[in-house]
Amino acid sequence: MDVAEKDSGYQDDSQHNASDSELNDSKVESKTAPVPDGGLAAWTQVFSGHLIMFNIWGTVNSFGVWQTYYASTLGRSPSDISWIGSMQVFLLFLVSTFSGRATDAGLFHHSIVTGSFLQVLSVFMTSLSTKYWQLFLAQGVTMGLGNGLLFCPVLSLLSTYFQKKRALAMGLAAAGSATGGVVLPAMIQQLLPKVGLFGRIFPNYTSDKLTGPLNMLIMLSAFAALLLLTWIAVHDEGGLTAFAVVYGFFAAGTFAIHMKRQQLNQKLFSGVQSLFPAALSSLTTDLQKTGVRMGMVFSMVSVFCLTGPSIAGALIKTDHGRYLHAQVFAGISMLAGSAFLVASRLARTGLRWQVKI
Question: Which of 28, 39, 143, 259 has its CA at 20 to 30 Å from residue 15's CA atom?
């Protein structure tokens, strides 16, 4: 146990393997190759993961720019155009179900090559598209398929290179979405305000040293839920800016809020999204199953990515354009997610609270 663990009061979960199931898990781990946990090859994987996340989430987080452009040139409603971005994210997570399993089966290179080809094909076909259905197929479907073939394999492979520094490594790779969210909009001549690059790295570093990724994820998710509910009390631009900065540290995704005279688009990158793969890895004793387990979770996420914007839009419409119903729904949903995280921790550690996991 290192000094940080002694000071924090957390005990490494690996020291508590009394049950028969945990003993069996340790036997499985002993049959696998040793984890490098550093070195040139391992950190090269982190850099490669950063670049891939740059491409994947840079395009996703930049869709608001494309949506504004398409609305002015195609003459379609914003709700119609939003389906392009929703389908892209839906396929990203849905395809991860299969690409994760393919990675576990030894088809990592096949998935990466195919996904990269589809990404490039999507960019070229989007540049040639002039109609809505063409953009839907090129940017929504093709890009979504390509991203899905890249996303889960990169994260699942990266987790096999680290153990003690796993959360930090995944946080550095996930930070590619932040840099991509800055660079790609600038390339289309509309650089938007960005908040929260270090929000993807600091929680991961702290979880490696002190709490463990699952413990940190639970705390950040709970804070994010409370912040979503406090959003109800925000009524001016100054309060909105303060809320965006703080929420950007705890929560994830793209956040767009319409003001009376302007639209504020904030890319909020966070510990919740970057810690999730590391927390899942901490619950997976057999790293050979990391890909399929990540894929299973991503398949569920895909459904909510597809339906979430529509549900939020419907709630805002029923509230006559106000955000109260959507805000309450978002806060309660995050609280429910936090409760499930606590349940997963209890299932793994029981009532032992000072356990690093």
Answer: 39
